[in-house]
Specification:
Residues 170-544 form the Aminotransferase class I/classII large domain. With 559 residues, this protein is an alpha/beta fold. It folds into 3 domains: 2-94, no CATH class; 105-134 and 440-557, Aspartate Aminotransferase, domain 1 (Alpha-Beta Complex); 203-413, 3-Layer(aba) Sandwich (Aspartate Aminotransferase, domain 2). It has 22 helices and 16 strands. The strands form 5 sheets. A 7-stranded mixed beta sheet has the order 4-10-9-8-7-5-6, sandwiched between helices. The protein has a 3-stranded antiparallel beta sheet with strand order 12-16-15. Helix 13 links the parallel strand 5 and strand 6. The protein is globular, with a radius of gyration of 25 Å. Residues 1-7 have low confidence and may be disordered. The structure holds pyridoxal-5'-phosphate.
Length: 559
């Protein structure tokens, strides 16, 4: 093996070393780079330094973004005089290569371009990311009032003589309850590594009420958004480069990014666009068999429900199919349920994997499950608060103790995020002073999301050359587009995906910033983009007109 060869102090590589290496890397290297290195190694030996340089080039998947950022920091360093010109020992080829290769499309090339245009004074509408407050959604009053009172020193907050004049009684009571749960040290101190016990008890009660089955606070880990929970679990799962995680195609790119970062392999299972982005037993099995035939060990499978970027809400039967598949194949199910409250389609309902697992326990006895939830989505949208939790269900106790160890190494999740999560799972009670306003604010957000989801999909489907499945849930529409072959050829020449060419053109023409669909993965030959429907109604209505105007212009330009 190549690494053994290097470990033996060898600085020349022969063709066999390289072939073994390429066989181990499988899909992680660009096909054209494989041809190049094989040609170079033909009949001769390669110098290790040359090989290293080739490897960096061969795995430059996000080169435009990487080099742009490097230039930016270079300029910054020059201005401050804090960076000297001498070569650095920690550089592009010696750094952690997994990090260099990692890609994250939601904040990728198109967004960078949008930020540049905005700095130049152009109006940009950021529909690239599910970040509701950034596009005008108002925070829910009750949450902010409790958070403020928890943060204020008691003499300026809950114990201030005028407190009751400024805050509703149930807010004050809740802030006192939270202060008590955290302990005398307040919001500025570390908490226990899994999160404050009282908050975890409230989360367990929320899950029990939702699913009708028991939940133990000891199995809850509070996290910085769902993201840090997903990262912790993947860190515990991926042991080496043959360990694989099945992810939906299309997927939310935190999965592909973290799998790359941790040096594992992703195995995509395609969702069926023609059938409302549903998942089939056959597609799962085919991908598992293929992965195993390539020597991969599939350890986990991510299911996103409601879906991002696809917006589908899985039926109970679909959730059961995935649970059963995981159970039968000894695969840990990672159930990403951050959009569980974002269900808009009439007749559709969210089914948690935990509920399905426990309702049908006799058939799913050995299901190992981790479910994720977050305060960033739903009707709350407090993305910057970084609140969330994960529930471990039927996970090996030794493994769970190691996940606890990992949480301990990070000390604890942010305390404001923990408070936010406790409020999410225990909203104001009926009869309390805040209840009416809270209910009004929540239903306004829900009605607005429902309305915009419908209006956007309808508007997109009215454009010739654009087709979009219903946004049944989540915060996104994920249309596919037809564009002229000439545009596809131009994109290839620019070494861009056709949908990146399209998204940049859309941005320049209209100021709408969407994410090219290729950033999420999609069926071969499909072209599309993802847009949120979070900006206000009038902005979304104009956006639909702009999508139409741009599509016609684009098709005309490349006709
Ligand atoms: C499916 C899905 N999972 C997880 C996350 C992570 O969100 P957060 O870390 O803010 O909870 C997102 C964010 O958009 C998401 O769409």
């Amino acid at each position: 093996m190549l690494f053994d060869a290097i470990g033996d102090g060898k600085d020349i590589l022969n063709k066999k070393d390289i072939q073994d290496f390429l066989a181990e890397c499988k899909g992680n290297i660009r096909p054209e780079a494989i041809d190049e290195i094989e040609a170079k190694a033909e009949g001769t030996c390669l110098d290790l330094e040359l090989f290293r340089k080739w490897l960096v080039l061969a795995t430059k998947f996000d080169s435009q973004r990487n080099s742009k950022m490097a230039k930016y920091y270079g300029k910054l360093g020059e201005q401050s005089g804090a960076i000297h010109q001498e070569p650095k020992s920690w550089n592009e080829s010696t750094m952690a290569q997994n990090l260099r290769r990692m890609q994250y499309a939601v904040r990728g090339q198109v967004v960078m371009k949008a930020e540049t245009l905005m700095a130049e004074g152009k109006d940009i509408i950021f529909t690239n990311i599910g970040n509701p407050h950034s596009v005008g959604q108002k925070p829910i009053t009750f949450y902010r009032q409790v958070l403020a009172l928890c943060d204020l020193p008691t003499e300026y907050g809950v114990d201030h003589p005028d407190c009751e004049k400024m805050f509703p009684l149930d807010v004050i009571e809740r802030a006192r309850e939270i202060n008590g749960a955290i302990g005398g040290s307040g919001t500025g101190a570390y908490t226990g590594s899994q999160g404050v016990l009282k908050f975890r008890q409230d989360i367990a009660a929320f899950i029990e009420a939702r699913d009708g089955h028991p939940c133990l606070p000891g199995n809850i880990f509070m996290t910085n958004g769902a993201s840090s929970g997903i990262q912790a679990i993947l860190t515990g799962l991926i042991a080496d480069m043959n360990d694989a995680v099945m992810i939906p195609i299309p997927q939310y790119p935190i999965y592909s990014a973290l799998i790359a970062l941790l040096g594992g392999r992703q195995v995509g299972y395609e969702l069926d666009e023609g059938k409302g982005w549903s998942v089939s037993k056959e597609a799962l099995k085919a991908q598992l068999d293929k992965a195993e035939s390539e020597g991969l060990r599939v350890k986990a499978l991510a299911m996103i429900n409601p879906g991002n970027p696809t917006g589908q809400v899985l039926s109970e039967e679909d959730v059961f199919t995935v649970c059963k598949f995981c159970c039968e194949n000894g695969i840990v199910l990672l159930s990403d349920e951050v959009y569980q409250r974002n269900v808009y389609a009439p007749g559709k309902e969210f089914h948690s994997a935990k509920k399905v697992a426990m309702d049908r326990e006799s058939e799913l006895r050995n299901l190992q499950l981790v479910s994720f939830h977050s305060t960033s989505k739903g009707l709350i949208g407090e993305c910057g608060r970084r609140g969330g939790y994960m529930e471990l269900y039927n996970i090996d106790t030794f493994v769970q103790s190691q996940i606890y160890k990992l949480a301990s190494a990070g000390l604890c999740s942010g305390v404001n995020g923990q408070i936010m999560t406790s409020l999410m799972v225990k909203p104001p009670a009926e009869g309390g002073e805040s209840f009416d306003l809270f209910t009004k604010e929540e239903s306004e957000i829900m009605d607005s999301m429902k309305r915009k989801a419908k209006m956007l999909v309808k508007g997109l489907n009215e454009i010739e050359g654009i087709d979009c499945e219903d946004a049944e849930g989540a915060m996104y529409a994920f249309p596919r587009i037809q564009i002229p072959q000439k545009a596809i050829d131009v994109a290839r020449k620019k070494k861009q995906s056709p949908d990146t060419l399209y998204a940049i053109s859309l941005l320049e023409e209209t100021g709408l910033c969407v994410v090219p669909a290729s950033g999420f993965g999609q069926a071969e030959g499909r072209i599309g983009f993802r847009t949120t429907f979070l900006p206000p109604d009038d902005v979304m209505e104009n956006a639909v007109q702009d999508f139409k105007r741009h599509h016609e212009l684009f098709c005309e330009k490349y006709a």
